[in-house]
From TrEMBL:
The gene is pyrC. This is Dihydroorotase. It comes from Deinococcus arenae. The active site is at D302. Pathway: Pyrimidine metabolism; UMP biosynthesis via de novo pathway; (S)-dihydroorotate from bicarbonate: step 3/3. Its EC number is 3.5.2.3. Transmembrane segments: none annotated.
Length: 420
């Protein structure tokens, strides 16, 4: 049993306590029992939910592993993490799904909900054994890390997943249009002499995938499509139009596409190389409007750790990805707290991702699962990558002063992270 004292609920200045027993919220403001934890005047909220993280296990543990990745997630205030399947081997076997869940459950950090590959080996040719993968505990199906070039295979996958009540999540880029682009195609790429990845690569693929969903929807097939790391204004407008038609299409946006632009690549530092690439300020502003009006369903980090040596290669050869699951909430709250408001940011990182997945919406009511985070919304702290739980101890935001840092994360009624 745990009692967390000296905390406030969102929108209230009243100091309260919450008691947790057997993994559930027993109640509020009860007589103190069990281990007493001082919440330091922080604000309590449901633990965050991450729908898109690369934890690199199995086979790439020099970059990250379940222990480091889930510890980093807990330090970032996350209670649940959906891991991507582009590992080595690919997570396309029910036995791998089961082994990941079993290993993660014994670590005591954030909860793992592995995504499984949509196609065998993520080759885009033959569907994986989706029914068995779901039975093993897969949370969603995706070939993220690769794009789905075969439209017929994606259509069959959407049909099958729909019959299973599962979401298919897609990395929406046309590979032929993206080609060897290493950054956004535009004036900056031209000035730097670097191959560009045009916005049309994303928009064209989003349009194709929405058309597939529209056709299935017209036939009564309960297909659900989730578009990952949306980065362009044009693609968001296509999603808006799909939603207006009542199509079961959702999308996520990443904080790095909101807070960084292609101008950062003028440094030639591959720390800014991501896929899809950082776009223009106009795109970032459009995505922010989508967060305001509900066109964007949720926030996700696309936490993608690499070794420092890999990211020190030149832009043509370095891998894509930024690892920052530990500072996603402070970054969003510091940059956009006044623009979006605390309630909206928390919704985008808790209730909204749960809704995308069809999971029960998180709550702090008595009897609910005890997944919660205590946030320090006032104290400003510099970003110090040396303190990261992740193996990727470097970040574009190093040294930036942020507020909103988690003080305590509780998962299944147990302390998964406590700030020293």
């Amino acid at each position: 049993m745990i009692t967390i004292t000296n905390i406030k609920r969102v929108g209230s200045e009243k100091t309260e306590s919450v008691t947790i027993e057997d993994g559930l919220i027993k109640g509020w403001n009860l007589p103190e029992e069990g281990d007493i934890i001082d919440g330091q005047g922080g604000t309590v909220a449901p633990a965050l939910i991450e729908l898109h993280a690369h934890l690199r296990e199995p086979g790439q543990t020099e970059k990250e592993d379940l222990a480091s990745g889930l510890a980093a997630a807990a330090a970032g205030g996350y209670g649940t993490v959906v891991s991507m399947p582009n590992t080595s081997p690919v997570v396309d076997d029910p036995a791998i799904v089961r082994s990941l869940i079993e290993k993660a459950s014994g670590l005591g950090f954030a909860r793992l909900r592995p995504a499984a590959a949509l196609t065998k080996g993520q080759k885009g040719e033959e569907l994986a054994e989706l029914t068995y993968l779901k039975e093993a505990g897969a949370a969603m199906f995706t070939d993220d890390g690769r794009t789905n070039e075969n439209a017929r295979t994606l259509r069959l996958g959407l049909e099958t997943a729909g019959s299973l009540g599962m979401v298919i999540s897609v990395h929406a880029e046309d590979a032929s249009l993206r080609a060897d682009g290493v950054m956004n195609e535009g004036p900056v790429s031209e000035a730097l002499g670097l191959p560009g990845n045009p916005a049309s690569a994303e928009a064209a693929r989003v349009a194709r995938d929405i058309e597939i969903v529209a056709g299935l929807h017209a036939q009564g097939v309960p297909a659900r499509l989730h578009i990952q790391h949306l980065s362009t204004a044009r693609a968001l407008d296509l999603v808006r139009a799909a939603k207006a038609q009542g199509l079961p299409v959702t999308c996520e946006v990443c904080p790095h596409h909101l807070t960084l632009t292609d101008e950062a690549l003028r440094s030639f530092d591959a720390i800014y190389k991501v896929a899809p690439p950082l776009r223009t300020q106009a795109d970032a502003d459009h995505l922010l409007e989508g967060l305001k009006d509900g066109s964007v369903d949720c926030l996700a980090t696309d936490h993608a750790p690499h070794t420092r040596a890999e990211k020190e290669r030149d832009l043509l050869d370095a891998p894509s990805g930024i690892a920052y699951i530990e500072l996603a909430f402070p970054l969003m709250y510091t940059r956009f707290g006044e623009t979006l408001g605390l309630d909206r940011i928390l919704n985008l990182m808790t209730t909204a991702p749960a809704r995308v997945m069809g999971w029960a919406e998180p709550t702090l009511d008595a009897g609910a699962k005890a997944d919660l985070v205590i946030l320090d919304l006032t104290t400003e702290r510099p970003v110090n990558p040396a303190e990261f739980k992740s193996k990727a101890k470097f970040t574009p935001w190093a040294g930036e002063t942020l507020k909103g840092w988690p003080l305590l994360t509780v998962v299944d009624g147990k302390v998964a992270y406590q700030r020293a």
